[in-house]
Structure formats: C-alpha cells, structure tokens
Amino acid sequence: MKVCVVGLGYIGLPTSLMLASHGVETVGVDYNKELVDTLNAGHVTFEEEGLEDLFHQAVEHGIVFTNEYIRTSMYIVAVPTPYDKFSKKIDAGYVTKAVKCVLDVCEPGAIIVVESTVSPGTIDRFVRPEVEAAGFEIGKDVHLVHAPERIIPGNMVYELLHNNRTIGADDPEIAEKVRQVYSSFCGGEIAITDIRTAEMTKVVENTFRDINIAYANELAKICRQDGMDVYEIIRIANKHPRVNILNPGPGVGGHCISVDPWFLVGDYPNLANLIKQARLINDGMPEFVLGRISEIMKEKGIKDVSRVGLYGLTYKEDVDDTRESPTLQMLESMERHLAHGVKVFDPMVKTNHVENQYQDFDAFLNDVDLVVVMVGHSHLKENLNKLEGKVVLDTRHIAGLQGAYTL
Description:
With 407 residues, this protein is of the alpha/beta class. Helix content is 41%, strand content 13%. The chain has 15 helices and 14 strands. The strands form two sheets. The chain has an eight-stranded mixed beta sheet, with helices on both faces. A six-stranded parallel beta sheet has the order 11-10-9-12-13-14.
C-alpha cells in the first residue's frame, strides 16, 4: 500500500520519514514549494534529534516529496488546526481543504486518516459534510479515520517509535488496516475506538497537562505576593507520595497544550470552567514575567529597557520550534505597552524572527544588564559562568544558576 502524507511540518515530516524508513511506500505532499524543494535538495526543514538520520534512511527507501496530490488508497492528513482567538473554536479550514484535494484524486475505497489534533466532533461537523457534498458515500467510496499524533518536539523520533497510539474509525476492519500501517514502526500499544472518542482523548490529554501547569503558575503568584519560596514549597510538598506538583514557568507554548484546551472552551463555554481558567492563568504568565522585570529594573536602577535581554525564543528547551512561545507572547505584550528595544538571543533559532535578535551570545550579553531566562537550553547550562556580573531573572529554575531572581 502506498501512503500519501499531506502536510510536511512538525508532525507530517517525521511521520512520513518513519513510514518510509520502515518499508512503507510513502509520498509526502505539501503546498509549500520552497519546503518541498528543500527536502528534495537533501535537507531537513527543522532541527530535531535523530531527524536527519531518519531522513537519509527514508530517502534510501525511496520516499518522494511533491506539491502534487497523488492517487492512492491511503492518506494521512497532518496539517495545522489553529483556533479562532475570539470564539476559541477550532479552525478546521486546513483539514477540510486537504480532504477536498484528496477527494479529487483518491482511489475508490480510499482511507483518509486525520492526524491533526481536532476538537471532539470536528470530523462529524466539518469533514463528513465535505465528503458527502463531493458525492462520496462514507464507508464505501471513502473511509474516515482519526489517529491523533502523540509526539513532542525534542523527542519526536523516539516517541514515534515507542508511544502508544489511538485509532478512531467507523469500521473496525478499516481501523485494523490503519493499525497495520502504523505498526510498521510503532512499538507502543495501538488502541482502537470510535472517531469522536479518539478526538476527545487527544484533547483531554493536553488539557490535563495544561491544568497542572496552571496550578504551579498560580502557586508561584501566590507565593510571590507573600514572599514565600515557591520552589522550596513544591520540593517539600512533592515528598508526599501522592503529590507531584510541576515547577512554574513563564507561560505555555507549542501547538498542543497552549491550543487544544481552547477547543473545549469554544465548544462547551458553559461547562469548561476549570479548563478556561487554567488557560487564562497560563496565558497570563508572560504578563506576570513583565511585572517581575519591571520590579527588578526599579530595584537595580536599570532605566533603559534596551538593556534587558531575553534568553530563549523557542517554546521549550533544545528545539527550534517557536510556535506560541511565551517569549513571543511577551514581546507582543511589550509592543502593546509601547516598550521597545529589548534584546533577544536563542542558540536554536538560526534566522532572525524578531527585532534586536542576536546570533552571537557574547555580543548579546555585552549589550544587556538584565538577562531574563525564558528557556533552559543546554547551551545556557553549559555557559552559566558567562552570566557572572549580570542581573538575572530565572523563570525556569535552572540548576546551578546562583543568586538569580525567580518568579
């Protein structure tokens, strides 16, 4: 069976490479010509441990990258699913557009697997109507499946190989066919269920994590108000055998935890009260960090915001993924407050994304007095000695970083 993976971003590319490297005939499709040209020139499009080796294995097995949808019997759709920032409802436009393009070329009885994370009911509300409007009978001419991705930047290759997966389908026999394809590389358990349950399960997983992060962040705010050490409190509380509080941070980024819970808020506005509050707490952390920066500047007599440097532009350590990053959120907030000139450095981001972004760490440090650690990259941990003499706000609780201000 030839598999066509639609969308060659952070999920689609490693998935297509994994399939191809394990002997599945694979074609990767993306509308972005520059991206496809880069892949065909022999280069991966983002940094990820093990991805380049996987890429070369896939190329050796004959993977094809193209801008054109191909005719085959199985498609995996891995395109973005943003949300409307006002209604909080999912924007399924990329998914439905991809499905329309598939319907133009697919073989009779083709299986369309949606890997993109969606809100529960998205396939019923958006995908099925598109298929039926095109004159296809679902279950005969086309089979729909939802197999939500479950990997994280920084550990994608390992997690593709080892994480458990979920396949939701109308027909158990179709689900079994899809499971066989994923089993070519997935060593974890692959659970089979219905589509709506699969949709809900993925969103619930990320919402659970978001709520736990929000608790830690709210605890940090409470402790800050009364001068308590939140890290010491968490350390001692976690000695209880049934307590595992996370560390607070400057916010939540990435395309999963910071987005998926909003799907539930948008669809169930009168029910998702705890979920909404957790999202508001986490989305408010960049503003909280700005408040800490202001306090420290006043205490240390730093009057010029251009002498403030933000270390870290990505949403987590040791990846080059900047989607929804707390640093970008904070820069947007500073722009609204008419604060300009802050410096930025991130060793993982090789091209300039924002104003005053440095590519040299020493030059960055030379031009700032206050360093705000937004991301705990390994690079920083290996260069802590260079922060000597700087005022430091450590939002990540970096081990070995002595004398820093904290959240």
